Amino acid sequence: MHAVITGASKGIGKAIAEKLAKEGCNIAICARNAATLEATAAAIRQQYPAVQVLAIPVDMGDKQQVLDFAARINATFPAVDILVNNAGIFVPGALHQEPEGLLENMMAVNVYSAYHLTRQLLPAMIAQRQGHIFNLCSTASYKAYPNGGAYSITKFALLGFSRNLREELKPHHIKVTSVSPGPTLTASWEGFEAPPDRMMEPEDIADIVWASYTLAAQTVVEEVVLRPVLGDIG
To answer: How many folded domains does the chain comprise?
Structure first.
């Protein structure tokens, strides 16, 4: 099996990469920070030496870098079985107070990157009539909230992309799943003090991805929303 995970150097992306490697998947991973990415790749290679790990530093907000990453994947893997569009940035703030250009930047990273990468990897998936695409959305994809700003807009858009992709790929037997976590213990929440029982573990999200992938061929989880037992923070 061959899998691609974007934004995989830490947090949810890293947990998913580790889970898929543990299950025997060759993986292609990317992140902006080359040093952090290489550290993650080295740890996975050491723990799972039989697994092929392609680690490429990529700014997912740069279309050409996304296309170059896709080309490397297509040259390395015969086809992708699992694509996890996880790369994203989170900047809270009210729409009328956000800096100029923030929406465009966040759309490029949170939405356009998934669009461009998916389009490049789909032909091989369609040719083999199988594959599973996971789009990491958010509870913010379903419910607007104060100071959601540009971030919330991008997550609504990503869910729309995922739903449209689901309908288009039915005839090709390619599954599409939107995974929407609430507060999860990742770098996005650094500096925020919250009791441990108010935050989910990234490994739980990774387990959901793998469980969804391993269902019968005729079954797909279209959307899954995860929250801490005590609900959202705020």
So the answer is: 1
Asked whether residue 198 is domain-assigned, the answer is: yes
- Structure confidence at residue 231 (pLDDT): 76
Is residue 232 domain-resident? no
**pLDDT band at residue 172 using 50, 70 and 90 as cut-offs:** very high
- pLDDT tens-digit series, residues 110-122: 999 999 999 999 9
Burial pattern 161-186, b for ≥16 Cβ within 10 A else e, equals bbbebbeebeeeebbbbbbbbbbbbb
pTM of the model: 0.93
Q: For residues 94 and 113, give the distance between their C-alpha atoms in angstroms, rounded to a whole number.
A: 24
Q: List C-alpha distances in Å: 74 to 13, 77, 79, 118, 130.
A: 20, 6, 7, 12, 16
Catalytic residues: 151
Name the residue with tokens 């990491």. Answer: 136
Whether residue 134 is contained in a domain is answered as yes
